[in-house]
Amino acid sequence: MLDIVVALLLLTLSVPILAIAALLVRIQLGSPVFFVQERTGLGQRPFPIVKLRTMSNERNAGGNLLPDGVRCRGVGRVLRRLSIDELPQLVNVLRGQLSLVGPRPLLPRYDAWYTERERRRFDVRPGITGLAQISGRNGVPWEERLALDVRYVEQWSLWLDLRILAATAGKVFQGSGVAVDPAAQMLDLDKERQTTCVSS
């Protein structure tokens, strides 16, 4: 109930911001305005997550996409820094696919690489924000990030959710912890664990 009420309120208040942001994305990056990607949610079921598009489709001479840090600039960089690109996920909340707070939903290709304990993240709805996000966002190593997700599941309370929401608001206003190109800071989970398996 809290998710629905707050999501409806935020979505209503953010309509003017979303409209302006969508127009700027359309002008600078073209169509589509929204970025839709499959993620893994509650019970390890897939669902489409919706964000405002923040990157161009620029490619090199070989036809490969340029790094995120190159393709995300101008309006895209501003939308990420202010987390405005995340606002359309409020629709996912209203659909029951996301909660306001919970483990961030990750790519389906990571599913095979979780430990048994880390799979506890699928016992609750994923969230727009979570314990890992207020602890450093993109700068937190995978092991620590997934451990924080499990800790959230095991220690969940309404008070914890409220604390996380308050801390998230502070980080958004400060624009802290956002990486324009996360891949430049750390490997994707599957690549990191493949590397670990090979080396061991």
From TrEMBL:
Give a yes or no for keyword Flavoprotein in this entry: no
Q: Which InterPro entries match?
A: Bact_transf
Q: A single Pfam family, by name?
A: Bac_transf
* UniProt keywords, alphabetically: Transferase
Q: Does the keyword rRNA-binding apply?
A: no
Question: What's the superkingdom here?
Answer: Bacteria
Domain Bacterial sugar transferase spans what residues?
Answer: 1-173
Alphabetically, the GO molecular function entries are: phosphotransferase activity, for other substituted phosphate groups
Task: Indicate the family of this protein.
Answer: Belongs to the bacterial sugar transferase family.
For this entry, the protein name equals Undecaprenyl phosphate N,N'-diacetylbacillosamine 1-phosphate transferase
Source species, please? Answer: Micromonospora phaseoli
